């Protein structure tokens, strides 16, 4: 089975990691550039922000090819999942769920049990499968419909 046919990325080799080199950070920015800037037409000035150097970045790779990315920020009692992206040719193969699980586990190792994100509206059901719930009204971010979604493990 080739990489594009892989159905259960959780069973594959460790494909997700915390970025710890400039090379890996460049790969994260490439994935985000492909997904957010090229596909979703988010302007560079919005996609890249003042939090890049302070955030914890996550990279997903298959055979050295960057396929997914995300970033975590820690805000008070909350871990905020941001900039989650999977390249189009790797979607619908479980990588999206796998990177969200990986990011949640990274946050848990840092003793965070309250999570939030600004989820694109069409992905709310996807994130709900991880325990997130919509809070508040629909809003625009980068001219894309979003909802605040939260999950507090301590209240469940």
Compute the number of structural domains. 1
Q: What overall geometry do the principal axes of the alpha carbons give?
A: globular
Structural class: alpha+beta
Q: What composes the largest sheet? A: 7 strands, mixed
Radius of gyration, taken over Cα atoms and rounded to an integer in Å: 15 Å
Order of helices and strands: EHHEEEHEHEE
Low-confidence stretches: 1-6
User: What's the CATH architecture?
Assistant: 3-Layer(aba) Sandwich
- Percent of residues in helices comes to 25-40%
What share of the residues does DSSP label as strand, in percent? 35-45%
User: What's the overall average pLDDT, rounded?
Assistant: 91
Any idea what the CATH superfamily is called? Answer: Gcn5-related N-acetyltransferase (GNAT)
Number of strands: 7
Strand order, biggest sheet?
1-2-3-4-5-7-6
* First-last Cα distance: 39 Å
Number of helices: 4
Assign the CATH topology.
Aminopeptidase
CATH classification class = Alpha Beta
């Amino acid at each position: 089975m080739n990489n594009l046919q892989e159905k259960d990325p959780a069973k594959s080799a460790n494909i997700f990691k915390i970025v710890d080199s400039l090379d890996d950070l460049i790969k994260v920015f490439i994935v985000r550039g492909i997904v957010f800037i090229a596909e979703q037409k988010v302007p560079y000035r919005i996609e890249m922000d003042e939090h890049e150097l302070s955030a914890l970045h996550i990279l997903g790779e298959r055979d050295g090819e960057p396929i997914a990315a995300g970033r975590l920020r820690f805000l008070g009692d909350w871990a905020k999942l941001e900039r989650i992206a999977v390249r189009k040719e790797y979607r619908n193969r479980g990588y999206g769920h796998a990177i969200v699980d990986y990011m949640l586990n990274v946050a848990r190792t840092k003793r965070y049990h309250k999570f939030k994100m600004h989820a694109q509206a069409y992905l709310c059901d996807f994130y709900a499968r991880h325990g997130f719930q919509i809070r508040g009204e629909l809003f625009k971010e980068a001219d894309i419909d979003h909802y605040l979604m939260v999950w507090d493990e301590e209240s469940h």
